[in-house]
Design a protein that fits this description.
The protein has one domain: Hypothetical protein af1432 (Orthogonal Bundle). It is 61% helix and 0% strand. It contains ten helices and no strands.
Amino acid sequence: MHKSAIIERTRGYVRSKFETEGTGHDWWHIERVLNSALAINKKERADPFIVELGALLHDIADFKFNGGDAAAGGKAAREWLEGIGADPATTDAVCHIVDNVSFKGLGEKNGMASLEGKIVQDADRLDAIGAIGVARAFAYGGYKGRPLFDPAGRTKDGSFEDYKKGSDSTIHHFYEKLLHVKDLMNTSTGKRLAARRHRFIERYLEEFDAEWNGKR
């Protein structure tokens, strides 16, 4: 199958699967990640076909919605790609991205090895911060039934096992992940784009704290 046909079939499949998803991991998240990845790749110059497929499939079976199974995404991506006749090299490259794209806790090593994967990972992480990142954090927190903030909560230790248990509140998630994203970016382009969004996160938390404590 021609590369353009693989992309179009994959786009249609992913959109139909995620269009009505309501946790902030919906089709529009995937499309934003795709657009950001392609924009980053204009500077970083990796294989655009692998970047595009990786971005489209990066959330195909996220461990957060599959009982904590970190291998679920790669398995689902492989099944889809082999089913539509993608060549083995393409399938392996994309599955590597899907298997390693997710944040799994500050104490866990990033296993992403390919430039294509690092670009997709940067694009995915960009969507976790800034104004959209704040909105997505609270959408997911609501889905999980978490309070906005619990002063008695704790910040997790950074292990994957602890991270899978979830944050004590959505605000705790900012301290466990979102405030660290800027320093986890892989590419120079991603780092530059993350800096502005990081500043928004800092300003948001400052305002939240002031309002929470009745100072504003």
